[in-house]
């Protein structure tokens, strides 16, 4: 799966990981119900975040249903967020829209398997887009607020000499609209302006991290990259850190002003895990995070950078235990028992995370 919060379950407590996975499963099931089994491949972490955002604005926790899925590493039935909840349905709409857009981009660029079956790929993308638009209409959301921004991206990228914020703007506006509508769905219209700004900053971070991670590949393939087009090569990392700091601080400030009856998981993801993702990708970490905001940036030493790389590789492995992965592997601190029976038997996080192949996650 893709998304800014990819691997975000690292360093989360066991119950938090379960809650996060339950929202991911809820969106996946909503996709199945709305558009068939194949569409479940569009499930992504950003759409699951939308489900969490909806629940955070509701007085009662999201309704659950029992479901079995081998991808959860469990053969027993588990309680997951119901695909009938408004958050799961809305997350599925955004997942279908994002999936259709990605296929169209891959076809246009002649990438991956899509280059061999372009007509079939376009047919699948068109169906996902159509079904997503119909489902969005039932939720009172106009997907044109997203697709129109995507359509403008090529025009935006054709202009040279602009700053990074100019190239990131379509993604910002699309995510702003997506976040804002959760206030309508949860009957909290007073949250809408703040959610729009949070969504915009989340979109900026989304665009930034994609551009930073794809920088070398985009240059090699002679494809557009927002950072390469707007920042000198020797300043890429410094500017990226500054952009992230500014956007993250804005998210943090506005989160504190939202009316959220159930904020815990959302704050963990948008405050704690988003900060960690920025650190993992950009090689920075915050010194302190007080109520008034985080201040100061220090570069990690090589050993810490290597530990983070191995930890991320562990949790992104094709075969892993997303729920039971022990804290010694995926956390910044050892868990009480270090590892459970289904995990490794290392005695501390250093021992676990210093190995080339993580004993926890395969």
Provide the fold topology.
Layout: H1 14-35, H2 45-56, E1 64-67, E2 78-81, H3 86-109, H4 118-138, H5 144-157, H6 164-185, H7 192-213, H8 215-220, H9 226-230, H10 236-255, H11 264-282, E3 284-290, E4 293-299, H12 302-315, H13 327-330, H14 349-353
Antiparallel strand pairs: 1-2, 3-4
Helix pairs in contact: 1-2, 1-3, 2-3, 2-11, 3-4, 5-6, 6-7, 7-10, 10-11
Low-confidence segments: 287-301, 318-362
Strand count, sense and closure of the main sheet?
2 strands, antiparallel
Count the beta strands: 4
In whole angstroms, the N-to-C terminal distance is 18 Å
Instruction: Kindly report the CATH topology of the largest domain.
Output: Farnesyl Diphosphate Synthase
The structural domain count equals: 2
What is the C-alpha radius of gyration, as a whole number of Å?
Answer: 20 Å
Q: Give the class-level CATH name of the largest domain.
A: Mainly Alpha
What does the overall shape look like? globular
What's the CATH H-level superfamily name of the largest domain?
Farnesyl Diphosphate Synthase
pLDDT averaged over residues: 79
CATH architecture of the largest domain: Orthogonal Bundle
Number of helices: 14
Account of the protein in words:
By secondary structure, the protein is mostly helical. It folds into 2 domains: 14-299, Orthogonal Bundle (Farnesyl Diphosphate Synthase); 304-353, no CATH class. The protein has 14 helices and 4 strands. It has helices spanning 14-35, 45-56, 86-109, 118-138, 144-157, 164-185, 192-213, 215-220, 226-230, 236-255, 264-282, 302-315, 327-330, 349-353, and strands at 64-67, 78-81, 284-290, 293-299. The strands form 2 sheets. The protein has a two-stranded antiparallel ribbon with strand order 1-2. It has a two-stranded antiparallel sheet with strand order 3-4. A hairpin with a 2-residue loop joins strand 3 and strand 4. Helix 1 crosses helix 3 (86-109), helix 5 packs antiparallel against helix 6 and helix 6 (164-185) packs across helix 7 (192-213). The longest helix is centred in the N-terminal third of the chain and has 24 residues, at 86-109. The radius of gyration is 20 Å and the shape is globular. The two termini are 18 Å apart. Mean pLDDT is 79; it is low at 287-301 and 318-362.
């Amino acid at each position: 799966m893709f998304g800014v919060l990819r691997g975000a379950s690292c360093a989360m407590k066991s119950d938090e990981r379960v809650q996060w996975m339950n929202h991911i499963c809820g969106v996946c099931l909503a996709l199945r119900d709305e558009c068939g089994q194949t569409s479940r491949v569009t499930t992504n972490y950003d759409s699951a975040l939308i489900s969490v955002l909806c629940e955070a604005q509701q007085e009662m926790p999201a309704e659950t249903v029992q479901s079995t899925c081998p991808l959860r590493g469990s053969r027993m039935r588990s309680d997951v967020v119901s695909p009938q909840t408004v958050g799961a349905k809305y997350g599925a709409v955004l997942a279908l829209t994002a999936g259709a857009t990605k296929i169209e981009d891959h076809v246009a660029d002649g990438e991956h398997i899509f280059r061999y079956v372009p007509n079939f790929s376009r047919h699948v993308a068109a169906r996902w887009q159509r079904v997503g638009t119909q489902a969005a209409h039932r939720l009172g959301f106009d997907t044109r607020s997203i697709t129109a921004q995507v359509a403008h991206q090529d025009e935006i990228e054709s202009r040279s000499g602009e700053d990074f914020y100019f190239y990131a703007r379509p993604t910002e506006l699309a995510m702003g609209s997506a976040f804002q509508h959760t206030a309508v769905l949860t009957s909290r219209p007073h949250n809408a302006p703040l959610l729009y700004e949070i969504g915009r900053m989340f979109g900026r971070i989304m665009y930034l991290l994609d551009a930073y991670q794809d920088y070398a590949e985009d240059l090699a393939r002679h494809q557009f990259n927002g950072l390469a087009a707007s920042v000198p090569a020797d300043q890429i990392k410094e500017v990226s850190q500054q952009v992230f700091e500014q956007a993250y601080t804005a998210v943090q400030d506005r989160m504190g002003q939202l009316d959220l009856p159930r904020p815990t998981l959302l704050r963990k993801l948008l405050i704690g895990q988003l900060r960690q993702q920025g650190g993992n990708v950009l090689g920075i970490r915050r010194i302190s995070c007080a109520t008034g905001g985080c201040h100061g940036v220090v570069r990690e030493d090589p050993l810490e950078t290597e530990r983070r790389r191995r930890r991320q590789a562990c949790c992104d492995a094709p075969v892993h235990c997303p729920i039971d992965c022990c804290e010694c592997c995926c956390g910044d601190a050892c868990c009480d028992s270090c590892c459970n029976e289904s995990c490794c038997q290392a005695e501390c996080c250093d021992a676990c995370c210093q190995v080339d192949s993580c004993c926890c996650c395969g």
